[in-house]
Automatic annotation (TrEMBL):
A Pfam family of this chain: B_lectin
Keyword Glycoprotein: yes
Source species of the chain: Prunus avium
InterPro entries assigned: Bulb-type_lectin_dom, Bulb-type_lectin_dom_sf, G-type_lectin_kinases/EP1-like
Segments forming domain Bulb-type lectin: 41-162
Keywords noted in UniProt: Disulfide bond, Glycoprotein, Signal
Lineage: Eukaryota, Viridiplantae, Streptophyta, Embryophyta, Tracheophyta
Signal sequence coordinates: 1-33
Transmembrane parts of this sequence: none
Classification via Gene3D superfamilies: Bulb-type lectin domain
Designated name of the protein: G-type lectin S-receptor-like serine/threonine-protein kinase LECRK3
Domain of life of the organism encoding this protein: Eukaryota
Length: 463
């Protein structure tokens, strides 16, 4: 009998241990299933603040899902760094140059035939990834930041690395005709005015775009990796390798490094290369382990001075018409209006400026007075290609007076005994301390307004 009781106790203890082990095993499998980055066909996410759990990569470094845009119940389907406070976005859904902004209650579904499909609460299709061939078996949110749709053989059918927006990550490449497009502003994710493109000739260029078309102006930065005296010297692809080096790989295997200098550890830092909304292409790093308030640090950027590098005959420059571009200490441009002008869009200083007065020969004539304008003098400021006449040799006083008396003239620039008279709209405005110039800007006086013309009465003969 005692042996029988002992056997029962031993069996019960074994059973308890087995149940405990099984529970732990199932728990670990469950946790793994939630964090291995794999998403099954039929899974979906809903754009709500209360239920915004994203699909995470295995390490939890990257997240795919909905991020709120401000406080207006709009969301952006995107991929972001999940472990840093500002949740920096590295990819976002867009269609026809517009960000796929989703209202609250929208869903993204992983489907077998159409890949990722984003629908509004009313069922309207807002965006879909699509697949060229094959049937989707599952999706994977990788630790590289790449979201991949796979078939049953784990072959890639579609991936975000092949459909980039404004950012590249280590492990990502751009083939010929591949490009990054800037967003319109820091908070507007629709297509902006700047583009990074690996051309068919192998040249990597930064250009402005004349929206809403895709017409590209002359590059303001180029690697010149085209065919030359050495066979195979043209660029084949832009490579951002896993160590954090960014270079153009040539056909002959040679490399053109976009930056020469130290490269931070990709093991200890998050690294990205982003075409910013203001046209600056820059590489950044952020420590993975940090305490306190830590932000992204710039490693390098191109171009050195975008205000001076962009001069467009068919575009508006960095800051839009009638604006002035000034370079900040971090090599990022800032835009402002001269006195007598105000922003076209108070919420977007990069869209240009408009005059706060009406200027023109007919308007000046109707005013009935000759004392219409003051002159604002700015140093080392220019709008290089807006002139319609050049006067030489001339003095600063004569240059000022000539513009003041000319009803077509809005601004006159004097430099090196030469006067350039310019009319509106002014383009490619910038500050350049090397100019040693003066700008004379005509500004309508506050008390000078156009008279209100009385309506013309019909002649008695016409009655």
């Amino acid at each position: 009998m005692p042996n029988h009781i002992g056997a029962r106790k031993l069996a019960m203890a074994f059973t308890v241990r087995l149940l405990l082990f099984s529970s732990l095993f199932l728990l670990s499998v469950s946790v793994f299933a939630q964090t291995n980055g794999s998403i099954a066909v039929g899974d979906f996410l809903t754009a709500t603040a209360a239920n915004s759990s994203p699909w995470l990569s295995p390490s939890g470094d990257f997240a795919f899902g909905f991020l709120p845009l401000g406080s207006n119940d709009l969301f952006l389907l995107s991929i972001w760094y999940a472990k840093i406070p500002d949740r920096t976005i590295v990819w976002y859904a867009n269609r026809d140059n517009e960000a796929a902004v989703a209202p609250k209650g929208s869903t993204v579904n992983l489907t077998a035939n159409s890949g990722l499909v984003l629908n509004s609460p009313q069922g309207e299709e807002l965006w879909k990834s699509g697949t060229s061939v094959g049937v989707v078996a599952n999706g994977v949110m990788n630790d590289t930041g790449n979201f991949v749709l796979q078939d049953r053989n784990s072959e890639s059918l579609w991936e975000t690395f092949n459909n980039p927006t404004d950012t590249m990550l280590p492990g990502q490449t751009l083939e010929r005709s591949g490009k990054l497009s800037s967003r319109q502003s820091e908070t507007n994710y629709s297509k902006g005015r700047f583009q990074l493109l690996l051309q068919e000739d192998g040249n990597l260029v930064l250009s402005t775009i004349n929206l809403p078309t895709n017409f590209a102006n002359s590059p303001y930065y180029a690697t010149d990796t085209t065919s030359g005296t050495v066979a195979g010297s043209e660029g084949k692809e832009l490579v951002f390798n896993v160590s954090g080096y960014l270079y153009v790989l040539r056909e002959n295997g040679g490399k053109y490094n976009l930056a020469v200098g130290e490269v931070v550890s990709a093991r200890d830092n998050y690294i990205r290369a982003t075409l910013n909304f203001d046209g600056i292409f820059a590489q950044y790093y952020h420590p993975k382990n940090f305490t306190g308030n830590v932000s992204w640090t710039i490693l390098w950027s191109e171009p050195d001075n975008i205000c001076q590098r962009i001069t467009e005959s068919s575009g508006v420059g960095v800051c839009g018409y009638n604006s002035i571009c000034t370079l900040k200490g971090d090599k990022r441009p800032t835009c402002g209006c001269p006195r007598g002008f105000s922003l076209l869009d108070p919420n977007d200083p990069y869209r240009g400026c408009k005059p706060d007065f009406i200027q023109g020969c007919k308007e000046d004539e109707l005013s009935g007075t000759k004392d219409l304008y003051d002159v604002e003098v700015l140093t080392n400021t220019d709008w290089p290609i807006s002139d319609y006449v050049q006067l030489k040799p001339f003095t600063a006083e004569k240059c000022n007076e000539s513009c003041f008396q000319d009803c077509l003239c809005a601004v006159a620039i004097f430099r090196s005994e030469t006067c350039w008279k310019k009319k509106l709209p002014l383009s490619n405005g910038r500050v350049d301390v090397s100019l040693n110039s003066q700008a004379f800007i005509k500004v309508r006086k506050d008390n000078s307004t156009l008279p209100i013309r009385a309506p013309q009465l019909p002649c008695p003969d016409e009655l």
